[in-house]
Structure formats: structure tokens, C-alpha cells
Design brief:
By secondary structure, this protein is an alpha/beta fold. It has eleven helices and eleven strands. It has a domain at 3-109 and 289-313: Nucleotidyltransferase, domain 5. The protein is globular.
Length: 321
């Protein structure tokens, strides 16, 4: 029995899926984050290894039985990063076809295979990616938290903390949102909070995201406004890709993916309404299979048209987180 292995690595976790020769899921594994730009290459490689081994153990398979591997990572949009990941995969799976690419490409593969469509990702970071019937691709976002990531969990968390800080400066009493944030983070006061942010920025802001959802669902106006702004920002990313690919007036699949979506109607519903304003005939819905499955399918599809000794990387921009 031979297998295809797909890896989906982001700023929060790494997922691995093993598909058997019939394309059925044989095993799965999870490990820590594997964005090389955020956690460093050594930690990213370690997470990829752990996730792959866990998935192979789950499948009862050996590494030598793997004939095709694809890793789609946030941060791998830079050719230097993708090539380094590719070299790592080739060393780990010397007998297999290996492919290193972005989280965007594997999400699009999960959504439409090699066909036309658009995928909108909102997790720790945010980005959109698409392909039209002519094979042209376009991307928007994915520049990391300091230049973008609009509407992401990081962005929502940062906006919530900024709103709480502004209210404090204006002498307003602590809101339910502020109280919930401090409780969730285990911080005693603002000095404690600012020190936590300085030490662990990448952990603090995304951790506030579920707190914003909770506050919004019990009627907190500030939290609801933040989620509404996030929906608008995410839709704008997709709109850029839709317009660049000439899809605005056509019918196409528009898939959503990432841990920030599918958690509350207060974000999902305004996002869908905004997307339909930009593309009225789009078929909007969540991915039906995971990006990790998309990665494994892409590995198998590419391996079928390349010798096993051949390997490729795709220097296309993905998300930076």
C-alpha cells in the first residue's frame, strides 16, 4: 500500500493527513505551529515532523510507503522559505515526490481541485487567493499582523484590547468585554497585560478572539462592532481577488476557511452578505474537506505528472502568520 501525505501549517497548529491509494483518509496527526517566519525554521520543522509521524502512526503506515508529500505553510510564500521547506521534506521523504507551497494553494485545492474558484482564509492571519478558468491566479492580504491580517483572530483581538484601552483613558468604567479579557488572559491589571503583550504578542491577541465572540453574543456593542468591521475587511480581501480575476459577474465557488470563521453568526452572516454584494452569483460555503486533505490530494495530483525523483516548490504568496 502506498500513501500521499498532506501538511497544513499555520500560526496556531499543524495538521497532517495521510490518504491511501484510493484517496481515503487513513490517518491524521496534529502538532504545534509551523510558520517558519513566526516560530523559526527549527520549530517549524519539528512540528511538521511530529504531525507527520502522528498521522503515519494513526494510519499504521511507514515513511517508506509515502510516495507523495505536500506541505502548505503560512509564511512559505517567500521563495527562500519554500525552498528550505522543500529541502527538509526531501530529506525526510527521500523516496517521495515532495512539494512545498503556501496555505493558500492547498486551501484552494481543497475547495476546487485544479479548477477555478476563490478561497478566503481567516485564522490567526487572513488572506484570499483564487484562480479563474484561464488559469490566472491572484492573491490579496497575507502580509502579517503589522501590515495586514485584516479581520483575522489577531486583528480582532488587537482591536478589542485597543477599544478597552481607549475606554480606560476616557475614564469609563470597565466594560464586560474588558473584564472578560482580563479573566481569560489571567491578568491582574493593565501593567500585567502590557507586559504579557510585550512578551507574547502572537499568543495574546488571538487568545482574545473567542472572548470577543462571547461578549458579542451577550450583546456587547463594542464587540459586535469589531466583528462587523472584521467581516467587512475580510470581504474586501476577497473582492480584490474576485475583481482581478474577472469573476464578479460569474458563477464560481467561494470557499471560506480558517479558525476565525464558522464560530459565530455575528461574523459569518455579515461576511456572506458583503461577499454577495461583490459577487452575487458566487456559491459561498465552508471548505468541505480540510486544507490538509487538499495538500495530500495536490501531492498525489502533481506526483502523477512528475517522476518520483522530481520535486517542486511554488513561490506564491501565502499568509505570513
Amino acid at each position: 500500500m502506498t500513501y500521499s501525505l498532506g501538511l497544513d501549517g499555520g500560526g496556531t497548529k499543524t495538521e497532517c493527513v495521510v490518504l491511501d491509494a484510493n484517496g481515503q483518509v487513513a490517518g491524521q496527526g496534529v502538532a504545534g505551529p509551523s510558520n517558519p517566519l513566526r516560530v523559526g525554521f527549527a520549530a517549524a520543522a519539528g512540528a511538521l515532523t511530529l504531525a507527520a509521524r502522528a498521522a503515519l502512526t494513526s494510519a499504521g503506515a511507514q515513511m517508506t510507503q509515502v510516495t507523495a508529500v505536500c506541505a502548505g505553510l503560512a509564511g512559505a510564500g517567500r521563495p527562500s522559505v519554500a525552498n528550505r521547506v522543500l529541502a527538509f521534506l526531501a530529506a525526510e521523504f527521500p523516496q517521495a515526490f515532495v512539494h512545498a507551497t503556501t496555505d493558500l494553494e492547498i486551501a484552494l485545492e481543497a475547495a476546487v481541485g485544479g479548477g477555478p474558484g476563490v478561497v478566503l482564509i481567516a485564522g490567526t492571519g487572513s488572506s484570499a487567493y483564487g484562480r479563474n478558468a484561464e488559469g490566472k491566479t491572484a492573491r490579496a492580504g497575507g502580509y502579517g499582523p503589522w501590515l495586514g491580517d485584516e479581520g483575522s483572530a489577531f486583528d480582532v483581538g488587537r482591536r478589542a484590547l485597543a477599544a478597552a484601552a481607549l475606554a480606560r483613558d476616557e475614564g469609563e468604567p470597565p466594560t464586560r468585554l474588558e473584564e472578560r479579557i482580563f479573566a481569560a488572559l489571567g491578568c491582574s491589571d493593565w501593567d500585567d497585560l502590557t507586559e504579557r503583550i510585550a512578551r507574547s504578542t502572537d499568543e495574546v491577541f488571538p487568545a482574545v478572539f473567542p472572548v470577543v465572540i462571547e461578549a458579542a453574543e451577550i450583546g456587547d456593542r463594542v464587540a459586535r462592532d469589531i466583528l462587523l468591521d472584521a467581516a467587512t475587511a475580510l470581504a474586501s480581501l476577497a473582492d480584490i481577488v474576485i475583481r482581478r480575476l474577472g469573476l464578479a459577474h460569474g458563477e464560481f465557488a467561494l470557499a471560506t476557511s480558517g479558525g476565525a470563521l464558522g464560530r459565530t453568526a455575528l461574523l459569518d452572516w455579515p461576511l456572506e452578505r458583503s461577499l454577495l454584494r461583490f459577487a452575487p452569483r458566487a456559491r459561498i460555503g465552508p471548505l468541505r474537506v480540510s486544507p490538509a486533505i487538499g495538500a495530500a490530494r495536490l501531492a498525489k495530483r502533481l506526483a502523477a505528472s512528475h517522476p518520483a525523483s522530481d520535486s517542486r516548490s511554488t513561490p506564491a504568496y501565502g499568509t505570513e502568520d
